[in-house]
Each structure stands twice: as structure tokens, then as C-alpha cells.
Amino acid sequence: HQDNLLFLWSITVSIFGIGGLLGSSGSRYLTVKYGKKKCLLCNNVLMIVAASIMGCSKIARSFEMILIGRFMCGISLCVPLHHQYVGEISPRKLRGFANSTSSFFWSLGKAAGQISGQRELLGSQSLWPMLMASCGLPALVQLVTLPFFPESPPYLLMHKGDQEGCKKAIRQLWGEGHHQAEIDDIMKEKATMKNTKILSVLELMKEPAFRWQLYMIVILTATVQLCGINAV
């Protein structure tokens, strides 16, 4: 029935956001416990599995596989790890540039998906499973290359207390040289965090000092959905 089809289509589109909500909610606990590098590797595995499930949905004649794949993609993509890891492994003079690349490549990826989804390219009746499975390619590239990178130096020092491991990671990333100033900065941040209370979402909403910032973030996030960005 047409109403059922419309409902299933709406669920297929929106379930990505539900997965994203779960992924972002658990990100702090996972990154503190396992580290950003390990979490990124697990994200890549999850994305490859999701891409495989969606790519095989037509052969299996199962729309449920698309729902599951979209949900898993939401969990994988919305754990806010990429810009954190890239920013923390970058030298100070390149940190701002490195952090901005996440937004750039996110927008570039969305544009590439919109273009390749045209009926003349991969959006045809025979090729759309390849389009849905293509999200696994960047994840595969990162899964193969990321093991050659060290764990984030701030994570090693602040959460693991591994000063030698931190120095080794810094030398591997930034080359030989005098990096004591960067290590001192991480130690200062660690000392500051000891005296800073981590607020839960409910505590954040109740805190008067952060109320206007919270209002602004909510309004911006809500209205960006109404500005026609996807149509553009």
C-alpha cells in the first residue's frame, strides 16, 4: 500500500539519524576507555559491514538490510572521532587547518554521493546497490592505513599516563626534534581537566551559564535542516 511504502521510505531516511544519536552519545566513554585509534578502526569495520549489507540487499530482495545498513552507517559516521584524532596528531601550526579538513571532506563526500547517485551514473536500477556499497571504500582505505599511525599523543599521556609512549608517538608523527613544549601543554591540559567537572546532558541543560550557548546550538542545528541544503 502507498502509505506503507511512504512510511518505510521515511524510516529508511531517518534511521541514519537514530544511529547517529546512539553513536555520538556513547563516544566519550568509548574514546576514554579504548582510545581514538581503536575506535576509528572499529568504526571502519562497522562501515564496511554496513556497506556489504546494503550492497547485497537487492540480491537478497530485502529492504530490511538497507534499514540495518543505514542504522549502522549512522553509528559509525556520527561518533565524533575523525576531527579529534586528526587535530590531536597534527603539529600546533597545522592544527586549525587539519581540523577544518573534516568539514571540507564531509561536504565533498556528500557532493560526490549526490552526483554519483544520478540515474545516468550509479543511480540506475541495475547499479544502485554499488552506490550504496561505495561508502565502504573510504572505510577500507582507512582500515588498511590507520594501523601504521600511532595512537593520539594526548590520549596516551592524559588517559594512560604513558609519557614514553607519548614521546614516541610525537616523534613518529612530527619527526625528531625538541617537542617538550607540546608535552608541557598536554600536561597543563591534564591538570586543568582534573579540576573540571564533566557535565551530563541533563546537567548541561540545567546549568544557567551555558544556557544561551545551548540555545544557539539547538537553533542552528534545527534551522539548518530547513534551509534546503540537501536540495541544493
From TrEMBL:
Alphabetic keyword roster: Membrane, Transmembrane, Transmembrane helix
Cellular component, GO, one term: plasma membrane
PROSITE patterns xrefs: MFS
Membrane topology value: Multi-pass membrane protein
Compartment(s) where it occurs, according to its Swiss-Prot or TrEMBL record: Membrane
GO BP annotations listed: D-glucose import; dehydroascorbic acid transport
GO molecular function, one term: D-glucose transmembrane transporter activity
TM spans (from-to): 6-27, 39-60
InterPro entries cross-referenced by the UniProt entry: GLUT, MFS_dom, MFS_sugar_transport-like, MFS_trans_sf
Domain (Major facilitator superfamily (MFS) profile): residue spans on this chain: 1-232
PANTHER family the record matches: MAJOR FACILITATOR SUPERFAMILY (MFS) PROFILE DOMAIN-CONTAINING PROTEIN, SOLUTE CARRIER FAMILY 2
The name this protein goes by in its record: GTR5 protein
Organism from which the protein derives: Pedionomus torquatus
